[in-house]
Write a structure and sequence with these properties.
With 242 residues, this protein is of the alpha+beta class. The protein has 2 domains: 34 residues; 171 residues, Nuclear Transport Factor 2, Chain: A (Roll), CATH 3.10.450. It is built from 5 helices and 5 strands; from the N terminus they run H-H-E-H-H-H-E-E-E-E. The protein has a 5-stranded antiparallel β-sheet, covered by helices on one side. The radius of gyration is 36 Å and the shape is globular. The termini are far apart. Keywords: Membrane, Transmembrane, Transmembrane helix.
Length: 242
């Protein structure tokens, strides 16, 4: 009887140990299942990041980024002649009559100019720059009468350079920092159609501009532009070819 009872006691002890181990395993498994799964972190990709518009570019890219809000072409801050020439040619025909007057637009274009360093005296340089600004007003941009006609129909014009820039040599320029660029420009006119809508049409022109991209260029005051950045010397009433 004592040996049978001993064997039964050992059996019950083993069974009890197994039950205890099973209970511990169940608790551990339950705790693991209760933990929340990690949440992946969304990482934006280049495909869903919008590109900045002209007026949203970082400070320093343009002399005045807010010029775009007036319907004008912002003047780029660059030492690259090709980039600057494209912007300068577009600027001479890009405006919005609902956002500015013709004189405000022309005053803005005046800020693109720098004196012609081929003249030795400062007085001659300033006189030549004034003559170039007058030439722009009288022989290059849209005349006052056509501006008034366009303004009567809430009109605007956007100019875009199409094709390559043709380089024309600049005479009597010992610095080698001046260049003349000629290119085809597409002008897109948009007018009110008189019925609450708008109508658009294109015109093609060929225009030349002379720029200075060198140490003698005079930056627009109180801006990030610096001496050496490109500036306009002169627009031409007729295109120049190589």
């Amino acid at each position: 009887m004592s040996q049978s009872s001993g064997r039964r006691g050992i059996a019950w002890a083993i069974i009890g140990g197994l039950v205890l181990i099973a209970g511990i395993v169940a608790i551990i498994v339950s705790a693991m299942l209760a933990q929340p799964a990690p949440t992946p972190t969304d990482t934006p990709t280049a495909s869903n990041t919008p590109e900045p518009t002209a007026s949203e570019q970082p400070d320093g890219t343009f002399v005045d980024p807010t010029a775009a809000d007036q319907g004008w072409t912002p003047e780029p801050i660059t030492t690259g002649a090709d980039t600057y020439i494209r912007a300068a040619l577009a600027a001479a025909s890009t405006f919005d009559t609902t956002k500015s007057t013709r004189e405000e637009w022309l005053d803005y274009l005046d800020t693109w100019f720098t004196p012609d360093t081929r003249f030795t005296s400062e007085a001659d340089q300033l006189a030549a720059m004034t003559d170039s600004q007058t030439e722009l007003r009288q022989g290059v941009v849209l005349p006052q009468e056509e501006w008034d006609s366009l303004a009567g129909e809430n009109g605007r014009v956007v100019a875009v350079v199409t094709g390559d820039i043709a380089d024309v040599p600049v005479t009597d320029d010992p610095s080698g920092d001046m260049s003349i660029g000629t290119a085809d420009v597409t002008l897109t006119f948009t007018r009110s159609d008189g019925s609450g809508g708008e109508t658009s049409y294109d015109e093609q022109v060929r225009v030349s501009v002379q720029v200075l991209c060198g140490a003698a260029s005079v930056p627009t005051p109180d801006t990030d532009q610096q001496a050496g950045d490109c500036k306009v010397v002169r627009y031409f009433t007729e295109p120049l070819e190589p």
